[in-house]
């Protein structure tokens, strides 16, 4: 075509081409953007927890960070964690992830600079409420003779100790000395007799 010849493309055709190109490029960018805006999965949070705390969601090492995702107390409470537990290590895994999603939305992956690189985008989650402890039924209390109860408990405890050959000598020496066990000592024994092999 000669330099002085009139171009064959009309203004309307050029505008249509520009619009089509913009739509294609814009649509492609939207598709690419959709991939990075997906929600962080439980598997991703498990990876972060594995990296941060060895996967222990109830960890409290005394370093000032708590739970599987190692929340500082200010980050935990500042992102609503206090509604679940005073510290992250006292909350469930699900509750920690709910708070982590809020942190991810406000601070990004940089909240976990080393371990957060595996995370995709945040998503709003809700965690089940902390289960309430069922109340125990009230037992009818009977009037008892505390001295008789203690004597029976003392006798039972000493009888159990005498069955163990390693402790028999100590029990016999206790009886010979006339020493009386009080309730606190009996409670301590009964709580720990499994350690003695009884």
UniProtKB/TrEMBL annotation:
Pfam families xref list: Transglycosylas
tRNA-binding found in the keyword field: no
Molecular function GO terms recorded: hydrolase activity
Keyword hit for Endoplasmic reticulum: no
Keywords of this entry: Hydrolase, Signal
Segment forming the signal sequence: 1-39
Residue ranges of every copy of the Resuscitation-promoting factor core lysozyme-like domain listed in the record: 39-115
SUPFAM superfamilies: Lysozyme-like
Region (Disordered): 119-154
Bias (Low complexity) ranges: 120-147
Family: Belongs to the transglycosylase family. Rpf subfamily.
Name this protein carries in UniProt: Resuscitation-promoting factor
Gene of this entry: rpf
């Amino acid at each position: 075509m000669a330099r002085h010849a009139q171009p064959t493309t009309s203004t309307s055709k050029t505008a249509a081409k520009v619009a089509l190109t913009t739509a294609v490029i814009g649509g492609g960018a939207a598709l690419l953007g959709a991939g990075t805006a997906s929600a962080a999965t439980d598997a991703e949070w498990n990876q972060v927890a594995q990296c941060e705390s060895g996967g222990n969601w109830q960890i409290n090492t005394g370093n000032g960070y708590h739970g599987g995702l190692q929340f500082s107390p200010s980050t935990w409470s500042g992102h609503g964690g206090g509604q679940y537990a005073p510290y992250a290590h006292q909350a469930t895994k699900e509750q920690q992830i709910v708070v982590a999603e809020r942190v991810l939305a406000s601070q990004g992956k940089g909240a976990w600079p080393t371990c957060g690189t595996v995370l995709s985008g945040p998503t709003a989650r809700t965690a089940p409420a902390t289960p309430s402890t069922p109340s125990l039924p009230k037992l009818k209390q009977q009037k008892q003779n505390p001295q008789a109860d203690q004597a029976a408990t003392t006798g039972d405890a000493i009888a159990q100790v005498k069955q163990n050959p390693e402790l028999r000598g100590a029990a016999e020496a206790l009886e010979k000395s006339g020493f009386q066990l009080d309730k606190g000592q009996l409670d301590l024994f009964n709580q720990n007799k499994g350690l003695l092999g009884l």
